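Q: For a teaching session next week I want to show students how multiple molecules come together into a single three-dimensional assembly. I've collected the sequence lines for a complex. Could you give me the predicted structure tokens for the whole thing so I can convert them for display?
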Amino acid sequence: MTEHKQADTQQNGLGFERPLLEMEQKIEELKRLAQSTHLDLSGEILALEERLRTQTAEVYGNLSAWEKVNVARHAERPMTSDYIQTMLDDFVELHGDRLFGDDRAIVTGLATMGRHRFMLIGHRKGKTVKDRLACNFGCAHPEGYRKALQKMRLAERMRLPVVTFINTPGAYPGIGAEERGQAAAIATNILEMFDLSVPIVSIVIGEGGSGGALGIGVGDRVGILEHAYYSVISPEGCAAILWKSGEKAPEAAEALKLTSGHLLQHGLVDEVIPEPLGGAHRDPQGTIQNVRSRLETWLDELTALPSEELKEQRFRKFRGMGLPVHAAELAGS
Amino acid sequence: MAWTRFSKKKDMPGGLWIKCDDCGAMLFRKEFEARHRVCASCGYHFTLPGRERIRLTVDEGSFEELFDDLVAEDRLGFVDRQPYGEKLAATREKTRENDAMIVGTATIQGHPCVIGVMNFQFLGGSMGMVVGEKISLAIETAREQGVPVILFSCSGGARMHEGAISLMQMAKTCAALSKLRAAGGFSISVMTHPTTGGVTASFASVCDLLLAEPGALIGFAGPRVIATTIKKELPKGFQRAEFLLEKGQIDRIVARDEMRGELARLIAYATGAPFRLDETLPTPEARVAGSNGRESQAGPAGASGPAVDSAAGGDDAAPGDASRKARSNGRRKPAAAARKS
Ligand SMILES: [Zn+2]
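A: Of course. Below is the structure for the complete assembly, covering every listed component.
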């Protein structure tokens, strides 16, 4: 690990990674030394690796909400494109919304994963600088949401379940996006997803940024990776409004209760999918495997249900989220 | 998705006179209120308190409020500068309302309907568990009674203090609308100033008919967020009702004093009930040309008529000017139409 990288981790809210990175670096050095000098350092290395495991478990067991937000945004965290590459046996990308354009911030296509076939719809963030720009950092325009809907309807005609991967800071706030009805595109998706007669599985794999996430998030099963987040507003945005300072993002992240555990506790997601020790970015393969095994179970469960039953359960789940109380009950409590 | 950016500037001063937010004219408070908070000078539509909206819209004595005892709980233990629970209690006390949504059954010029009105005075009309629930219940009541539902929105978006619970109210309200649609029910959304964030991105944009008041700010992201993101100044009239009409996003712009009549007429079309052209409505010719200034552009007659300023292309300084133009065009046209007949 270079010093440059360490400075980066400080800046992007990953300061807690620093001792872990230093220890990983030490272990690497020892291994190199052992190789070049033919000294037997295996005892030292094993001890250090054990210490690293303990410390990683401790650090990752005690992440603050803000730290989790930054893990969710980690550049090396597996993205939709990694899942496509690693998890799928086949993928046929289908482009365009048939109306305006092909938004690269959302990828859609026909997928095969073992015995399962489905329509995959996922936010795409991009890996390289060029990719990231092309994908608009995962911030979709209305044509992205309309593409998603068009492909969902196609999936319905093909009797294929829909699998969505959510990973967006939020839908793009721009002039063109507003002109072309960003709000209406998201709203239409939410409405239409309640009407879709095939199973829908949604997994928040990184950032669940507000309406931009929910626009492909009305799932019969909604899973969230352990260190991913799902929020009504970005912590920065919330801090700017309620605390009048973007620097209060860590406080806002805490207050918003946007972590996987809180979401599960409030019944807003169905299950938390565990990440390997030290977060998804330390072990992308392990993460993708965990997601795959949940997906298989859910698809098996859901494809067994008649479509009317499926829609009714989907309706009931979201209809029951955040039920208020009667004034008399409040007074009595 | 946030609401507070609107909450400061719309406070009404308590004095005899009120300064128009848009044109700066000094308005005599009593007259201003008699005109239902529409500027006499420029036609700017101020945000209307929820109860006033209901009084203005439904037949006198017909409103029967429903679900008014629903209240929110601070499930997250949300504290910014004040605990949310305290904020809720204080706002309930101050506004004498339980939350930011008023719903009930009513008739409009004799047509039965369910009406829901967002109340901006209660935490900026923000949508949390109570608002989402009451909208869904209103839609379900309409479905059960077989009458149309009319939803007036006026909100900065989701209520941050309820975190992702408020986000999911977007799904909840759309779930209810989806059932209504499947059952053959009918819904009308009226977007008033301002309607943004999670409200625009859910039920308010997917009703069968989408209406807006002149000059209303309607959008997904707030203008300040967009300006910060793109680091550019926004075009004149951006995200105003006239802009949305121009871009094909809404069906009609309806001025406040014509809303009641328009709703009655639209409900009649939806239900098949007969309707009469009440004297409170402008004449049919006037309505075609005038009730929103943009319609005349659709036909060849409009093209040869007086130029209608584009909502997005005006050269005036204030963004609210778009509403003034649309209004004054609306006023001018009926006269022209009347001359022809
Ligand atoms: Zn004025």
